[in-house]
From TrEMBL:
Source lineage: Bacteria, Bacillati, Bacillota, Clostridia, Eubacteriales
Annotated gene: mutM
Cofactor(s) of this protein: Zn(2+)
Residue ranges constituting the FPG-type domain according to the UniProt record: 237-271
Catalytic activity: 2'-deoxyribonucleotide-(2'-deoxyribose 5'-phosphate)-2'-deoxyribonucleotide-DNA = a 3'-end 2'-deoxyribonucleotide-(2,3-dehydro-2,3-deoxyribose 5'-phosphate)-DNA + a 5'-end 5'-phospho-2'-deoxyribonucleoside-DNA + H(+); Hydrolysis of DNA containing ring-opened 7-methylguanine residues, releasing 2,6-diamino-4-hydroxy-5-(N-methyl)formamidopyrimidine
Protein name: Formamidopyrimidine-DNA glycosylase
InterPro entries per record: DNA_glyclase_Znf_dom_DNA_BS, FPG_cat, FPG_Glyclase, FPG_N, H2TH_FPG, Ribosomal_uS13-like_H2TH, Znf_DNA_glyclase/AP_lyase, Znf_FPG/IleRS
Keyword Ion transport attached: no
Source superkingdom: Bacteria
Chain residues that bind DNA: 95, 113, 152
Gene Ontology MF terms: 8-oxo-7,8-dihydroguanine DNA N-glycosylase activity; class I DNA-(apurinic or apyrimidinic site) endonuclease activity; damaged DNA binding; double-stranded DNA binding; zinc ion binding
PANTHER family: FORMAMIDOPYRIMIDINE-DNA GLYCOSYLASE
Subunit-level organization: Monomer.
Family membership: Belongs to the FPG family.
Record's keyword terms, sorted: DNA damage, DNA repair, DNA-binding, Glycosidase, Hydrolase, Lyase, Metal-binding, Multifunctional enzyme, Zinc, Zinc-finger
Amino acid sequence: MPELPEVETIRYYLDHVLPGQKVHKVLHIDPRMVKTGSLSAEEIARRLPGHVVKSIKRRGKFLFLEWETQDHLLIHLGMSGRLIWIQNHEPWALHTHLVLDFEENQLRLIDPRRFGRIGWIDRGVELVPHLGTEPLSADLTSQFLVKRLQGRQAPIKSLLLDQSIIAGLGNIYVDESLFRAKIRPDRPGGSLEPREIKRLVRSIRRVLQEAIEHRGTSFSDYVDALGHPGQNQDYLMVYGRNQAECRVCGQPIVTKVIQGRTSHFCLHCQK
DNA sequence: TTAACTACCTGTTCGC
DNA sequence: TGCGAACAGGTAGTTA
């Protein structure tokens, strides 16, 4: 499930190989994946050939291929999406929904569950205006989060998953951040004290930075742009460790469903 | 405005 | 062994 560190890992690699490359053909684009933007799948396929990649951007969990025309192709990987840069003679995987042919290599989107999305964003249009602050930018401060959590009754877990507050966190990194900050995921957001929020901000940054250094977390679907799994799953403290011993106190990690999301935490370490 | 719920989707796991 | 049900979860839309 690609969250910010996984998407950033893909972006980082693609930004080394894609700029300057010209789209030769759009070999395949699944209309069911085009769920946003100003053009249909057919129109994107007609428009793209000849376009040259200028840069690869990321905002939250969204990736953008910026063209020299300053239009953008939005790609979201959803739950199970993979975006790979691969030689064009390699056979297509099952569930391949987008194939951009750059003559020698192809950029392919593979997404078994089809929760991902593709869209065309015209030049000058704001990319994803509804997204909240970038957690690794200077905009995420404890003062910002204090303000956003004030008076909120929803569990802190749900509020951290809300992309309009902080963009890029998903189930894994919210659980990990809350563990590091020693905060239970079912606490109402508005009940957090300023010192806890300060700790939470520090934890979010550290968890995300470490996950990027480990090239993301691979449980089932995620691989980077070269098809390699990440390593961060070896460093997780709570996520996916139901009933395992807490690495800090030795008590069993427990799970609880909060707003439809399985949350992992330690009853002893998190208050 | 906020909180909770639902649809989308398919591979995997579990129980019978 | 095979089948069906339940589960996993990010986003956007709906409802109260």
